[in-house]
Amino acid sequence: MIQGGKLAVSKTGASRFRNRDRAQPRQSNREFIPIVLFAALAMFCGVWSWTGQSATVSRAAIISVSSFASDTQSASFGFCDTGGGSNCVVDGDTLYYQGVKIRIADIDTPETHPSRCAEEARLGDAATRRLHALVNAVPFSLQFIDREEDTYGRKLRLITRGGQSIGQDLVDQGLARWYGGGRQSWC
Fold this sequence. Notes:
Blueprint: E1 2-3, E2 6-7, H1 33-44, E3 48-51, E4 54-57, H2 59-70, E5 78-79, E6 88-91, E7 94-97, E8 100-104, E9 107-108, H3 118-137, E10 141-149, E11 155-161, E12 164-165, H4 167-172, E13 177-178
Parallel strand pairs: 5-6, 8-11
Antiparallel strand pairs: 1-2, 3-4, 6-7, 7-8, 9-13, 10-11, 11-12
């Protein structure tokens, strides 16, 4: 019971009525944090472009940012010694990830074990170093293809970042070819 503007308390110590005039605690703005972070990331990545007073976001940029966000695989990769390892690069199209030997399914790179000529050795070494840099850069995704493994027991996977094959980088630099079956000489 309210008596003289004060809330009466029963003999047991519990309030019989809530004081509706009491100020409610201020609510947190935590639900806006993901939105603000996305907007900051989009602006940082150049996704947002300002035209007059309205902002437009390209559909391709949204797909790219959301694809990048889904890349969850990462490790600190070294170079493999003979016999394999846990997280290491064997050559330009083969690596060990979490102890599993993986052959990048969409590209073919020059052989390094053994190479057939000096030019193949040079290109193979450059492809190995480039793959090492690519898988160490930022998270990536492993995607299954229609075959589980090749004739050597390596798991066949596509390695992508932001929805794009990292093989594209190797092909663009002349360190790989798109795999079309069989081997072609690099000499």
